[in-house]
Amino acid sequence: MIAPAPVIESGGRLRLDVKFVEGMRVQQGLWPSRMTVALRRGVPAIPFGRDYGRDELPFDLLLLDPDEALTARHLSGFDLIYAGGDDFHCLGLPDLLHPGQKLVYVIEYTQETRLQIMDLDRSRSLLGRLRGRLWLRQQERRRLRAFRAATALQANGYPAHDLYAPICADTLLYLDGRMTPDLFATETEMTARETWRAAGGPMRLIFSGRLEPMKGAQDLIPVARALERNGVDFTLDVFGTGALQGDVAAAMQQLAEPGRVRLHGAVDFETELVPFTRTRADIFLGCHRQADPSCTYIEAMGCGVAVASYDNRMWQRLNGEAKAGWGSPLGEPERLAERLIALSRDPQAITRASRNAWEFSRAHGFLPEFRRRMEHLARIAGITLAPFAA
């Protein structure tokens, strides 16, 4: 596996993302032989990391330098190579395969999303963006060639699947998320929120994610301002950090009632964000301007929260399947606020969408989606998985 997870090597110890290691522990538990994971050095910090010795890891680890080129030597001795299709370092792998080796890519972004992310990058000059577009086009040609040569493809989210599935005959669609059975909202919590809404309590909005332009963080306060102007009784809790954190904090103070919006920073997913969302939120406010697969949708839905989002390609397709909320034109906060204004007068509509969101997410939780991915790889490798004990 050539993975995008960060790693820091220091004094014979390895700092790794805890979620990545625990996910690999589940994966290795299913696989009948020892897996090797290749990770690249180069990150300065890992926020939710822990230090491990190599003997503590549930897999063998190969460390690569930040720009180290992959060679046939790196692939030697492996029957199955599982690599990130978003990683340009991996796009030359078909030329390195030995006879009999099988290659499976996993892909999340589409070219449209990559271009949107680049265009929202404030640090790039016009010339830098033009150069970036040229480079992305070159990499996309390499990506299409690699996918045509690959044994199979796993696509995270509808946009990537819809774009790349015609290129690779054996393509699996999955919806990535971290919701395990113990994290989903309970019936008691669902009923309590329905009682709150029926009694006329304030509409409780929530946003979680990176406070970056690609996630639409710049539109959170304009939505709140429009709700204020129209006399909507609401609260907005914002979880996350990023380049726009200072801008959001400053804009909050310009509201007529700044206390309606609360900025929480980054919190632990399982012990803080999920319990809060399950008990103190009604609608996830999705200002995402691009169509990345965004596990945030499926995770908020699993907490029993409906979604009001811009109609990016991911949310449009997901909501078409789940009937879990509402869409509005991309990049127009006033139109998104209009939708919320109408919903503030229709608690039953919120309840219907919340119930749909909850049911859909439970059917696509971490364990069933992960099992499907592993069964796909096992079929390609011609092996039988161990019993799923997780």
TrEMBL record:
<feature type="domain" description="Glycosyl transferase family 1">
    <location>
        <begin position="194"/>
        <end position="357"/>
    </location>
</feature>
<dbReference type="Pfam" id="PF00534">
    <property type="entry name" value="Glycos_transf_1"/>
</dbReference>
<protein>
    <submittedName>
        <fullName>Glycosyltransferase</fullName>
    </submittedName>
</protein>
<dbReference type="InterPro" id="IPR001296">
    <property type="entry name" value="Glyco_trans_1"/>
</dbReference>
